[in-house]
Amino acid sequence: GDTASTLGTPVDGAAAGEKEETHIRVYWHDVVSGPDPTAVQVARAAATNASKTFFGAVVVIDDPLTEGPGLGSSRLLGRAQGAYVGAGKGAMALLMAMNFVFQAGTYNGSSVTIMGRNEVFTAVREMPIVGGTGVLRMARGYAQARTHTLDLKTGDATVEYNLYIRH
Questions:
Q1: Which single residue of 1, 78, 109, 119 has CA 20 to 30 Å from 53?
Q2: Domain boundaries, the chain
Q3: What fold characterizes domain 21-166?
Q4: GO CC terms for this protein (predicted)?
């Protein structure tokens, strides 16, 4: 017989109520300056010093994720843990590989993994969500990043992340 009758009828997960769609907004704080940075450069190529695009640098992060844009005044929701790499020679483009680990609220103890290209001076950047844990297990979707503030003197940045997740 044909595959459908042998194995059963395929079911659309969303129609069967198996997939949930979730939107989460957080603010990501990348602090590279001061006595207690949350982003630390761990490697750089010899060519990185001459690069205007950060090409060849590797930064490890444990960045706070907050409910609002104020780092000191907004509720801490979790941490962004992972790394970003200067991967663009012609444009300031990073390869982002990070877990958003939630430590408060509905998603406490759960995480999502984001891995993709971030061209930082583009108004809205989109990166794929490739997995998740806890209540966000098997997450798929995308993250949209918008720079909220960038201090060109210190390099510190606050970025609004909107996560659109199916899980």
A1: 78
A2: 21-166
A3: AOC barrel-like (2.40.480)
A4: apoplast
Q: Which sign does the torsion angle of CA 41, 71, 26, 89 carry? A: negative
Spatial separation of the C-alpha atoms in residues 129 and 165, rounded to whole Å = 7
* Pair 44, 70: CB distance under 8 Å: no
* b/e sequence 14-29, b meaning 16+ C-beta within 10 Å: eeeeeeeebebebbbb
96 phi/psi in degrees, rounded to 5: -100, 130
Q: What gap in Å lies between CA 118 and CA 102, rounded to an integer?
A: 22
Question: Does the pTM of the predicted model rise above 0.85?
Answer: yes
